[in-house]
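Researcher: Here's a chain I'd like modeled. Treat it as a single chain, no partners, no ligands.
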Amino acid sequence: MDVKAVIGQVLQRIRPTEEERAFVEGLVRELGKIAKEAIERLGLDVKPYFVGSLAKDTYLAGDHDVDLFLAFPLDTPLEELRERGLELGKAIAEGLDGYEVAYAEHPYVRAKYKGVSVDLVPCYDVRSWKEVRTAVDRSILHTKWALENLSGRNDEVRLLKRFLKGINAYGSEIYVRGFSGYLAEILIIKYGSFLDVLEKADFMLRQKVIDPENWLKKEPEIALKTVKRETEEDKPLIVIDPVDPRRNVSANLSWERYGIFYFKAHQFLENPSEEFFFGKTQKTGNYLEELRRKGTHLVTIMFPKPDLVDDVLLPQLERSARGFERALSREGFRVLGWDAGHRAGEAFVMLEVDRREREKVTIKPGPEFFTERGWDFYRKNEKVWVIGKRLYAEKRVKENIIDVILELIEKNQVALGKNVREDIKNAKILLDYVPKELEEDAYLFLSREKWNLKGQQ
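Model: Modeled as a single isolated chain. Structure tokens:
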């Protein structure tokens, strides 16, 4: 099937129908009316703005999440914005179908209405980047910019978003580190179409800096500072936010997710298929068979999931996994890979290692023999010898990797995430076994299916 035929079929599945559009438009009208009534009832000077993909008409069929921002005047003190914003969010949500309070930079209300998720987020009513005071304020400017520049290319955005979802590279959240919806919109506006973006996969990496609003000319000092900072942090792309020269839109995009996009873009252009957009059914298998096939071993450190949001928890687990990787390599074990996450109320770190046990002794290098430290080393160790000027000793060590890990934790010789340090000290450590709820995670990790580049999923 040629590429145009594939795109045509995909669009039929992802473009909202007329009935769906009518439902969304009615939903927005009703929510706007409920919001305005609540604002008047509380006597507030607040403007409601719909932002995000629903407001820009870049949403996918069946994906109707609503972002309703409650914009307070710029002279509102931050503490007052937080308090009155939450009060207003709750007042609006009382006219909906239930709600809960969620927390980001400040509290906001997450409600349900007619089966749709509705986020009610307080922010400042900003007109330019110079007025931005909180992280969410830019969303109003993002929506305005996209509406002014999309020029009817909404379906091209839908194609790119669905492609990124299909290859597991969509979402700028810390647990994904992929392409955000706003980044997808910018790339379409910049390069023209879905296929143009895919064809530019190499070019974007070489060019590195994408500056749709020419901030490097309009605000060179600020924009160059952004470029320098992001270059030093070795980000795959630097996309200077069209509405704010201080911000890289792709700051959360990881090299791994860009790598997946890079290979899948090439594969799709060579051999177009709907599977790139909707994925194959995830492969499953037996993690024990993977261990036998490879002759390696699996260490799993698991503990009850702490009450932390993913944006905090996952980086802490990843930091801990890297800490174990470094500590075990110092002890003579080779870590072939690691994974971290949570499932069914359990947080985990998985380490694939080359062996279960090491030698009973290790050779410990010491100082030069004619120094004060040399005498100290000589007295403390049983088997000591000299090679050249330096002393060496034989030291008995724990053999089993579980014992080694327990000793490393006890002696604080592993760099652990500060928010999970105490949890890990009390964690269960499993060798070549995981409970049923982690079997699929173990298989996807050991088989590398989780990061598979060769297949179409």
